[in-house]
Fold:
Amino acid sequence: MLVTRLAAATTASALAQRLREAIDAGQWRPGELLRQEQIAAEYGVSRIPVREALAQLQNEGLLDVAHYRGARVSRPRAEEIDELFDLRLMVEGDLLVRALRQHDPRSLRELKRLQDALEDAEDRLGWISGDIAFHEALYGPAGRPRSLALFRQLRAPIDRFSVQALGPGTRKQGWADEHRQLIAAVAAGDAITARTILEDHLQATRAVVLAACAEQGES
Amino acid sequence: MLVTRLAAATTASALAQRLREAIDAGQWRPGELLRQEQIAAEYGVSRIPVREALAQLQNEGLLDVAHYRGARVSRPRAEEIDELFDLRLMVEGDLLVRALRQHDPRSLRELKRLQDALEDAEDRLGWISGDIAFHEALYGPAGRPRSLALFRQLRAPIDRFSVQALGPGTRKQGWADEHRQLIAAVAAGDAITARTILEDHLQATRAVVLAACAEQGES
DNA sequence: CATAGGATAATTGTATCCAAAATTTTCCCG
DNA sequence: CGGGAAAATTTTGGATACAATTATCCTATG
Structure:
């Protein structure tokens, strides 16, 4: 994957990015307390950018922050995850149909390229960021910036569990197949089929994520 | 309205609230630059809570913040407002239908009470906060916290223009009528009618907001 | 022995101060 | 007189220092 991660403009945003990855990677478990001082020392910065990063992650739904009481990795309940998937079905379904009309040979080539890169990714984090890139390229031609931002926002609290569920010998092959079917349907301009495939894709993901969430909830 | 605004736990959140109201009230115009030092002096605090409040408002989509270049009141383009209303139609439509099944005499009484309070509100800001309260009570019984949060988020960048469009002798009466029709349809358990009324309500609001936005865009 | 109360420590929120970047002004040269 | 480079000013981002709040632990008491 040749995506060069451009240097963050500010310390706070760079921190937010690294903390996001750390949470996705399971470095902090749900319910665990993130101490400002500790994070500041670990990354060699002061507490000010740490606070801004934590506020950012709270806004994304990855943390629960209470006044004077610290930030904890959020532990979404099964009903909330279910709800997030219902919202994704609405938003992404709409985006897909709108984007489908705007796709052209160039954007389709890009989509295939991203899918190839995705299947070559070796580690779990690479897989997830590749999946995000694929879907953004899929929905991008719709020209709907707020919906696209919403798509990212609805995924953020969920991806953590997807990463967990991506052990070796899991649903990886079916996932890739569904992506390729999506590309084919979009190339054919078949909105109904494309939307059906996407919905099945999301329903399958929902089941996997709910299972991973339930598993983690036991600890 | 007997809602006592509880004192904010922290300076930053109190500031965010006041700035939000100031922007909704048109105290700052779209594109205008918000200086940290000036706001800090105005409210008698240091720049740290100001920065956190500005970051919060940026997350809510009311401000555009550029690195080392200050925060400006966002000036959403017409297409983005259009997009936000499309999203509201999806999310609020879904919420309404789900809530409709859960409403009971008690929640309906509360809804009527809020509508009465709304019609008694004298100033524009009171009208808007009353409208938010009404819709939250309308959707609340659905038991969908993330969707409700999304509802608030989708309104935030728009309400500013609604306030503008609420001069005397405007659509206020039609607005109230639609609310009462909504209550009646929900009380009757008629999902189809309720959803239709809500969609008309939102479409009418969309037109008003787009007009206000276009008017402001000229300056 | 369990528990309420209070001192103490740990942690967060805010103010003050310094560094980096951007904007404005000034000044020189064409 | 106009244009552009460079210095000065302004403004933001980050570090250090202090105050406010919460959590912990110890003791005294029923």
